[in-house]
């Protein structure tokens, strides 16, 4: 696949220490275009729609904000919205987003049994934007990766 110059710049901005300390790629060695292509296939296989998932995550964030920083039940999920501290630019250079952190996990799962990334989604406004506009769920091992299987599981609860 041909990598466009803007994508090369975005790739550099996804590295640790550029926009965020941890970056957006985790320990994934695939280029973003490949991550996006494989996650698009996973979305199709799971019957997920990028816009609908982004809308659902925004809905969880908005509902979770009523907890004022404490976990609250939203449907069958327990959602916690942390403080927004500052803004982050999109690696693709098309916007600024609140640096917040939202976590969502099954409400009936005890916290000690909950594994981040397997049972719990962690995301922020920039994660929702990356998913909606760029179809980028972030690299494997990124703390903010939106794993398609986990999205399908939690959003269908
Ligand atoms: Zn963007």
Overview of the structural elements:
There is one protein chain. Helix 3 runs antiparallel to helix 4 (about 125-135). It is built from 5 helices and 6 strands; from the N terminus they run αααββββββαα. With about 160 residues, the protein is of the alpha+beta class. Helix content is about 35%, strand content about 15%. The protein is globular, with a radius of gyration of 15 Å. The chain has one domain (about 30-155). About 25% of the residues are buried. The model has no long low-confidence stretch (mean pLDDT about 90). A hairpin with a 2-residue loop joins strand 1 (about 70-75) and strand 2 (about 75-80). The strands form 2 sheets. It has a 4-stranded antiparallel beta sheet. Strands 3-4 form a two-stranded antiparallel sheet. The structure holds zinc ion. Zinc ion binds near residues 90, 92, 94, 95 and 129.
List keywords for this structure.
157 residues; alpha+beta; four-stranded antiparallel β-sheet; two-stranded antiparallel sheet; globular; binds zinc ion
Topology:
Elements: H1 5-13, H2 32-46, H3 50-64, E1 72-74, E2 77-81, E3 87-89, E4 96-98, E5 102-106, E6 121-123, H4 125-134, H5 148-155
Antiparallel strand pairs: 1-2, 2-5, 3-4, 5-6
What is this entry, summarized?
The chain is of the alpha+beta class and 157 residues long.
- Globular, elongated, flat, extended or rod-shaped: what is the shape? globular
How many E strands? 6
How many DSSP helices? 5
Integer tally of domains: 1
């Amino acid at each position: 696949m041909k990598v466009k110059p803007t994508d090369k710049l975005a790739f550099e901005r996804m590295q640790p220490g550029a926009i965020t300390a941890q970056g957006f790629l985790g320990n994934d060695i695939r280029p973003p275009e490949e991550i996006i292509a494989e996650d698009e296939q996973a979305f199709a296989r799971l019957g997920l729609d990028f816009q609908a998932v982004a809308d659902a995550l925004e809905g969880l964030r908005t509902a979770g904000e009523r907890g004022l920083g404490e976990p609250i039940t939203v449907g069958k999920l327990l959602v916690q919205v942390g403080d927004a501290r500052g803004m982050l630019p999109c690696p693709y250079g098309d916007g600024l987003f609140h640096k917040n952190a939202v976590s969502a996990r099954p409400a009936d799962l005890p916290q000690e049994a909950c594994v981040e990334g397997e049972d719990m989604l962690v995301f922020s406004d920039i994660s929702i934007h990356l998913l909606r506009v760029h179809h980028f769920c972030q690299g494997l091992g990124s703390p903010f990766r939106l794993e398609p299987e986990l999205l399908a599981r939690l959003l269908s609860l």
